[in-house]
Amino acid sequence: MNLQDIISLDKKYFMNVYGDRTPVCFTHGRGVNVWDTEDNKYYDFLGGIAVNALGHCHPKLTQALKDQLDKLLHTSSLYYIESQAKLAKVLAENSCADKIFLCNSGAEANEGAIKLARIYFKKKGLPDKYEIITLKRSFHGRTLTTVAATGQEKYQKPYTPLPPGFKHVAINDINALKAALSPATCAVMMEPIQGESGVNLVDKEYMQQVKQLCDENGLLLIFDEIQTGLGRTGKLFGYRHFDVEPDIFTLAKALGGGIPIGAVCAKQQAAAAFEPGDHGTTFGGNPFACTAALAVMDTLLHDGLIENAANMGEYFKGRLLELKNKYAVIKEVRGKGLMIGMEFADEISKDIAEKLLHQGFLVGSIGTSILRFLPPLIITKEDIDKMIRALDEILE
Ligand SMILES: Cc1ncc(COP(=O)(O)O)c(C=O)c1O
Predict the structure, then answer these.
(1) Which one of 74, 209, 286, 331 has the lowest number of neighbouring Cβ atoms within 10 Å?
(2) Domain around 264
(3) What global pTM score does this model have?
(4) Same domain, 267 and 314
(5) pLDDT band at residue 159, thresholds of 50, 70 and 90?
(6) Which active-site residues does the annotation give?
(7) Is 284 exposed, middle or buried (0-12, 13-18, 19+ CB in 10 A)?
(8) Which tens digits make up the pLDDT trace of 57-70?
(9) Total structural domains within the chain
């Protein structure tokens, strides 16, 4: 099909939640590159919004999935699943978590984490402790409860009344958090770096104060690592930048390298609150998705991708800062590893993203003044240099 026919079909039959999408349709990819219906080649600096950590068609992931396709896709959670058990082991052994639950998406993982926090206190005989404090400008998903957790009115307004039990406080303001505490508070939940609202960094000192506050008040600390997890920030998990361990953290996006899978990861004390019948899913953690995640984890842990994310992140940020020194319109370059935002003094990010697209580079625009870069963790200096050259020409 040609692009116009695809767009017409989409406009006629797909619910209009994505509005006028970028008018491109990709047909195949390899490494950091994707090609569209007109056979134009692009460098993917958005990585499916932090999903394609291994790039496109990584041979290890592709081969593992091909092999699994010939064996078994799905059985149900009524039976034991070898790849599920193995994946839980890999995630637990490489993190601060002891136990894992597998589901299908980021929002579902966060729902699971919220349910776990609530049931933890119910089973302690404290049913009135159910409130979770999250940050303003956070993003935790699109289900009703994760929309309630998300600290952005634009996602909440159309769906009121929302499930109760969430308060939102300003980022990096420990007094605001202290003031929000009440006898009903059961947990604090945050992204180690806010992704969707513009790559907003959480201060290390603040994070450590949050942890201390949670410990002093017997609250659970939940990290949404759906975007920051799995090497994206140059460490396997975002929390490792803060020398703070959460009681519960969630994963999704990169975990399946493109196959939908999410995870709720928890320390034993919290995890033990889930008992038979308390939670579950039909598809979550099925043999196909777990095979994907095992291949992703194996590649991340053994092929130097996390080190590459740290090194290339430094290099990329340095090159973007060179542009900042050259062009006054660039207000700030911020981020960790390969999770980088560039904020402009003017509302030009959409225009720049469009121009980059025409030059063969995919990036994200947040609102009208922030560009977001989330390239695959296999990105090289040469790829980054090409993008910088294009951005430089556009800004000129
Ligand atoms: C930090 C964070 N949490 C949760 C989600 C929701 O994940 P999903 O779209 O897989 O439900 C996202 C998605 O962008 C995210 O960035």
Answers:
(1) 74
(2) 72-302
(3) 0.98
(4) no
(5) very high
(6) 139, 224, 253
(7) buried
(8) 999 999 999 999 99
(9) 2
